Amino acid sequence: MVNRNLIRGLDLNEEDWAKELEESIDSGDIADVYTFESEITPNQIVDGRIVRIEKEFVIVDVGYKSEGQIPLSEWEEGEEPPKPGEMVKVLIEELEETMTGEEASKGMIALSKRKAAKIEAWMKMMEKVKEGDVVDGMVTKKIKGGLLVDIGVHVFLPASQVDVRRPSDISEFIGKPIKCVILKIDETRRNIVVSRRALIEKERAEKKNALLHELEVGQIRTGTIKNIAEFGAFIDLGGIDGLLHITDMSWGRITDPKEVVAIDQQIEVKILHIDYEKEKISLGLKQKTESPWTNIDEKYPVGAKVNGTVVNVMSYGAFIKLEEGVEGLVHISEMSWTKRISHPNEILSVGDEVEVVVLSINKEKQEISLGIKQTTDNPWKTVDEKYPVGSEVTGVVRNLTNYGAFIEIEEGIDGLLHVSDMSWVRKITHPNEVVTKGKQINCKVLSVDKKARRIALGLKQLTEDPWATRIPEKYQAGQLVKGKVTKITNFGVFVSLEQDLEGLLHISELANHKVENPEDIVKVGEEIEVKVLRVDPDERKIGLSRKRAEWTEEQAAEQAAEEAAEQAANPAAVNPETLRGGTGDSSGPLFKLPGENN
Fold first, then answer.
1. Percentage with pLDDT > 90 across the chain
2. 93 pLDDT exceeds 90?
3. In 144-219, at which residue ranges do the beta strands (DSSP E only) sit?
4. Could you tell me if 236 and 227 are in contact, meaning their C-beta atoms sit under 8 angstroms apart?
5. Taking 90 as the threshold, does the pLDDT of residue 515 lie above it?
6. If we measure between CA atoms, which residue out of 70, 71, 72 comes closest to residue 81?
7. Beta carbons of 398 and 359 less than 8 angstroms apart
8. CA distances for 548 relative to 105, 145, 475, 553, angstroms
9. Measuring CA to CA, which residue among 517, 383, 505, 521 is closest to residue 447?
10. How many whole angstroms separate alpha carbon 317 and alpha carbon 329?
11. 375 CB contacts (<8 Å, ≥6 apart)?
12. What CA–CA distance (Å, rounded) separates 113 from 128?
């Protein structure tokens, strides 16, 4: 007997059949389709003979007491139309005893040619195929979640199993023959699931394994560009992909792999490395030609002048292309002998043609050091001849610092004018007291150091040193002079004797009595008369006394005698280190009298 649920499940048109596959409706067991009983019973497949054709039905004799009828629509379009006398396999759907309505009144039994054909097709398929078999079929239509494929019966091909990479539109397979493998047979649900992808992957794996053992490092192979990424391109070598890294595409500079390769392009590459365990292959394109660095030291010997093109400018220098695959670096320090360059783009731009000198070559690291300034003579080589010591030069004040001023003698060549060389007599605390940035000034060359690239300049040396003769001659010990108070400190008072010349009036020399605060005795700007105690040309200092200016000759003689006696009795009482007063420092008085603590 035939399972009635199975029969009902087969009474479907193509769309209903597809829906059945998709929704997997449970229709029970399909174990026994045929029966060997001699009597005709419902759900039995039997042979019948066509008796006649009446309107929309075909009347068939199946050897029963009543004839049966089949809808004429069960003969497909294009199929040979039924003719009286022909034999046809039919399925007994219902006997007249179980029928109701018009069919029962006519004494007809219900038959189905289509269901009989489907049941036979399914049973024959179950005898021929099993899970894992490869089958051929025709894609008939697209259904929810995949495709319907006719392999003798309709089977389901999920969209995820159509190809290795899921197509954007699986409808393109409709009407095309395909080969696939049976993944699962569900006889209960009358469903077969197949996969085209699994078959492709299996074939590729076999081909990949065979190809992997054919490949050898150093071989030249032809492949197809399948994918391009920022770091390189993937190439199908005929079953296995290899990576052509961007650094292996050209000996020259490449920023994007698309500059060299394109999708689906056929290309010859060299096998660089094979990882059999991870099945990874490294490919090279530039390795098909000899490296331009092979004889680099012969092509570009150190010291040679060559021409190149600026291809990149960085904060630390510029890269110069000498030929395809060969670039050198001009460091910022090698761009000019004299110019102060803060960034290479001040003198170079990408695309500029420049002449350079090869400074050094590191063949192993593929590095070349280049210089631009070396294409011209170094002006520091002859700077001592151009600016000999003792000569006068004219320059512009370029920069001021706490310790001096930099004077630009010519473009890129500076000399340092130190604060100590600005005046013979003035104590300069900052260069801006004497010079102004951007102004022209005359100086004398004091020294030249070509190796260190330094020139020392002097401003005061343009005039005679007044401490050599004029000041010692003009100011002598015991002389009374007048001056103006310029500064008051806790240890004494500075008195201006003439322009740019000061003497120190120590607090102990302000008055005959002990002075705690010099401002109690004198004021800034006040003109006072003082006596010169000592003039020290070596230390460039003058020591003064206000109290002694008021002494009589007898007082002065008496004081001198006391000092002489004290010194004779105790020579160490007067320490030379204490005899230091002078022009504007805080080092103490020129004289320290015996018995004084201040």
1. 23
2. no
3. 146-150, 154-158, 177-186, 191-195
4. no
5. no
6. 72
7. no
8. 164, 120, 16, 10
9. 383
10. 7
11. 305, 355, 356, 357
12. 23
Q: Which of 587, 582, 589 is nearest to 547 (CA)?
A: 589
CA distances from 342 to 317, 388, 437 (A): 10, 30, 20
Each residue's pLDDT tens digit, 303-362: 999 999 999 999 999 999 998 889 999 999 999 887 878 899 999 999 999 999 999 999
- What are the start-end ranges of the H helices in 443-547? 470-474
Give the count of alpha carbons within 13 A of 262, CB side only. 1
Residues in the chain: 598
172 close to 157: Cβ distance less than 8 angstroms: no
Based on its alpha-carbon atoms, the radius of gyration of the chain, rounded to whole angstroms, reads 57
What stretch of H or E contains 156?
A: strand 154-158
Whole-angstrom distance, CA of residue 206 vs CA of residue 146: 27
Report the range of poorest mean pLDDT among 90-94, 157-161, 315-319: 90-94
Please give the single-letter amino acid code of residue 155.
V
SS3 at position 262 = coil
Closest CA to 117 of 147, 78, 152, 148: 152
The span from the first CA to the last CA of the chain, in angstroms, equals 139
Q: What's 466's DSSP letter?
A: T
| C-alpha span between 371 and 358 (Å, rounded) | 7
DSSP 261: -
Whether 398 contacts 406, CB under 8 Å: yes
Q: What's the rounded Cα separation, in Å, for the pair 179 and 149?
A: 10
The Cα–Cα gap between 248 and 288 comes to 10
Distance of CA 279 to the CA centre of its chain: 29
Judge whether 159 and 170 are in contact, CB under 8 Å. yes
Amino acid (one-letter) located at 87: M
φ/ψ (deg, to 5) at 549:
-65, -20
What angle (nearest 5°) sits at the alpha carbon of residue 456, between those of residues 450 and 458?
155
Q: Are 578 and 592 in contact (CB under 8 A)?
A: yes
What is the rounded distance in angstroms from the CA atom of residue 357 to the CA atom of residue 368? 10
Amino acid at 581: G
Residue pLDDT, tens place only, 245-268: 998 888 888 889 998 899 989 999
The verdict on pTM exceeding 0.90 is: no
- Show the DSSP H helices in 1-93 as ranges: 4-10, 14-23
